[in-house]
Design brief:
5-stranded antiparallel beta sheet, mainly beta, single chain
Length: 128
């Protein structure tokens, strides 16, 4: 088994209101996928010294909405290593959420966090 299997990278990001796309300040599902691309880039840099290329997803599931004003935590874990490909499991959890019913700027920490999106993807790195 490669020492790259199990490599884990975590990013946190505030979701700005400028990214709201639908009623209720919902952001589109592609928002999480873009974050998966960012965290995959760091995985490739850490494991292979190269930004790599995202080859595709073998599965994506949207479990719960992401809204403007949320803080999300995106995690990538390498689960398989091929000659040039790496399979990565992704999750996006909402860890904080705005509570506009309390006041315009109120927010709360979600305990437990809410799983918003999960996916399995493949990245490819150049041969060395």
């Amino acid at each position: 088994m490669s020492d790259k299997v199990g490599t884990r990278v975590v990013h946190r990001r505030y979701v700005p209101y400028s990214h709201a796309h639908y009623a209720g300040n919902l952001v589109d599902g592609a928002y999480s996928l873009a974050l998966f691309g960012d965290v995959a880039t760091e995985v490739c840099i850490r494991t292979d010294g190269d930004e790599g290329l995202f080859a595709g997803y073998s599965g994506v599931t949207f479990h719960a909405p992401v809204r403007a004003g949320d803080v999300v935590e995106v995690t990538a874990v390498v689960t398989r290593v091929g000659n040039r490909s790496r399979t990565i499991e992704f999750t996006c959890h909402v860890v904080c959420r705005g509570t506009p019913s309390v006041s315009a700027s109120a927010a709360e920490v979600l305990d437990p966090p809410v799983l918003a999106t999960s996916a399995t993807g493949t990245v490819v790195v150049p041969a060395r």
